[in-house]
Write a sequence for this structure.
């Protein structure tokens, strides 16, 4: 149990366009979802925390107007990268808490390439 | 905020040699988690340590949590090529349930 999916698994978009990434908890209700970003050869950096039905909390240095997070239900959170630029190219990973164990469950990640 | 230091950054070993990565925190931790990320993949949960001085084993992997709950280690005995990847420790941000702060990771390469 405690499966988290992400869609799409990879996406290539042109500079200036927006991209939406979905994170779903398939078999449990995720009270909180976390969005991480990982650049090549680097660690995971937390971007924001989203709670169902409330505004996301962003980490210092993360632009909330650029990375829009919506946690509309207990099983779905979305991250929209608005007006994407090449420097936004990264591996975006979500984590959902609320599963059977007291820890987060990670999705498989979305690899974004902005050309 | 919470920080955790992980060393070494890279480790290259010959197949059959042992490998260890270490994580240290300046503050007492409620728990520490370990993840493995294969090249091109996503982090996969390995284990969570909660108790002071805890030692857990998974086949050739041995995980330890320090007595003061400020440090932890992951030791792999007799590495194999399948062990290749980056190993991360992760600790919860204080009073921010579920929010994890990741160590810098140790990239392990194994030469056959």
């Amino acid at each position: 149990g405690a499966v988290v999916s992400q869609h799409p698994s990879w996406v290539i978009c042109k500079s200036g366009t927006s991209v939406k990434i979905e994170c779903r908890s398939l078999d449990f209700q995720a009270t909180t979802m976390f969005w991480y970003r990982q650049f090549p050869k680097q660690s995971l950096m937390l971007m924001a925390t989203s709670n169902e039905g409330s505004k996301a909390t962003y980490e210092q240095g993360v632009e909330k107007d650029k990375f829009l997070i919506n946690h509309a239900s207990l099983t779905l959170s979305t991250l929209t990268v608005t007006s994407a630029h090449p420097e936004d190219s990264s591996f975006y990973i979500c984590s959902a808490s609320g599963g059977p164990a007291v820890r987060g469950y990670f999705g498989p990640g979305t690899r974004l390439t902005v050309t | 905020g919470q920080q955790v230091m992980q060393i070494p950054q890279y480790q290259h070993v010959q197949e059959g040699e042992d490998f260890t990565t270490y994580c240290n925190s300046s503050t007492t931790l409620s728990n520490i988690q370990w993840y493995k990320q294969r090249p091109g993949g996503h982090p996969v949960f390995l284990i969570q340590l909660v108790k002071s001085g805890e030692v857990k084993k998974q086949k050739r992997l041995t995980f330890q949590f320090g007595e003061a709950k400020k440090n932890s280690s992951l030791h792999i005995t007799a590495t194999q090529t399948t062990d290749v990847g980056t190993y991360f420790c992760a600790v919860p941000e204080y009073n921010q349930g579920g929010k994890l702060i990741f160590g810098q990771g140790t990239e392990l390469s194994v030469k056959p």
Summary: The two ends of chain B are 41 Å apart (CA to CA).
